From TrEMBL:
It is a multi-pass membrane protein. Its main location: membrane. This is ABC transporter permease. The keyword Transmembrane applies. The lineage of its organism: Bacteria, Bacillati, Bacillota, Bacilli, Bacillales. GO terms for biological process: D-alanine transmembrane transport; L-alanine transport; L-isoleucine import across plasma membrane. The chain crosses the membrane at residues 6-33, 63-82, 94-116, 136-160, 190-212, 267-285. It comes from Cytobacillus solani. InterPro entries: ABC_transp_permease, BCAA_transport_permease. GO terms for molecular function: L-isoleucine transmembrane transporter activity; L-leucine transmembrane transporter activity; L-phenylalanine transmembrane transporter activity; L-valine transmembrane transporter activity.
Length: 291
């Protein structure tokens, strides 16, 4: 029983980590919290439902479609909601946050018109396949979710640390003006960051649909707030912190449901925000800023 719940928690936590990485990338480069990320994630989930359930196409095509469309959404978000604010003098530092909140509301309302307000089943063709190891049952869908999440996290870490584009992005995150003086195309890096973050959100949307067998228009808000909790828990702009924070939250929620009251499941994320802000405001992996 304990081992099975650990597996469930790690599976859920790995999805949360992918969602949080999208928040972390954008915050690390732009210094803003993208409140539209949850709704982009939700659109990715619905694209997966349409491709795999309505059109009866293979799951890999669902992932491909979700990546493509959410990447386009990310480009449009940066181009029309964020870039104009960066080019204007005297704009409040809260303006980009408010802009992404507006996009979030727009996308949620659009999803109600396009998909309806109810639950939409998301059934992977291998959802019922499982492996029995003694008294422990492991579902193939859990393995697939975990493997995809690990590949994404390792791939992102390698890209940021070892490739020229990744190093340019890190330089942009460190100091926008200095990176520009050194020849880095910072506008391109910013656009690339939002596109990558959005595409990762689309992938995470399908993974959540696979994990819970359903998709709703409301899932974007819930997941967006949890993603915010995770980056506060792990440390704002810290990639490793986002990964660790996602796993911690996933395990905590799973054990609360099993050994406590499931009604408190969603409250765990916000309790974590309060505790971390009181005890360690910079997050578990963030660095304290001296003033």
């Amino acid at each position: 029983m304990l081992i099975e719940q650990l597996i469930n928690g790690i599976t859920l936590g790995s999805i949360y980590a992918i969602v949080a990485l999208g928040f972390t990338l954008v915050f690390g480069v732009l210094g803003i919290i993208n409140m539209a990320h949850g709704e982009i994630f939700m659109f990715g989930a619905f694209i997966g439902v349409i491709v795999t359930t309505s059109l009866q196409l293979p799951l890999w095509l669902g992932f491909l479609a979700a990546i493509l469309i959410t990447a386009i959404m990310g480009y449009m978000l940066e181009r029309f909601a964020l870039r104009p604010l960066r080019s204007k003098q005297g704009v409040s530092h809260l303006a980009p946050l408010i802009s992404t909140i507006g996009v979030s509301i727009l996308l949620e309302n659009l999803s109600h018109h396009l998909f309806g307000a109810g639950n939409h089943p998301f059934r992977a063709s291998f959802a019922e396949i499982n492996f029995q190891i003694g008294s422990i049952t492991i579902y193939l869908v859990q393995i697939v979710i975990f493997v995809i999440s690990v590949i994404l996290m390792m791939g992102l870490s390698f890209w940021l640390g070892k490739t020229k584009a990744g190093k340019a992005l890190r330089a942009t995150a460190e100091n926008l003006e200095t990176a520009s003086l050194l020849g880095v195309d910072t506008k391109r890096m910013i656009t690339m960051t939002v596109i990558i973050a959005s595409a990762m959100g689309g992938i995470a949307g399908i993974l959540v649909g696979m994990a819970f067998n359903s998709v709703t228009p409301q899932m974007g808000l819930s997941m967006g707030l949890k993603g915010l909790a995770i980056i506060i828990l792990g440390g704002m702009g810290n990639v490793k912190g986002a990964m660790a924070g996602g796993l911690i939250l996933g395990l905590a929620e799973t054990f609360i449901v099993v050994y406590g009251d499931s009604g408190y499941r969603d409250a765990i994320a916000f309790l974590a925000i309060i505790v971390i802000l009181l005890i360690r405001p910079q997050g578990l992996f963030g660095q304290k800023i001296s003033t």
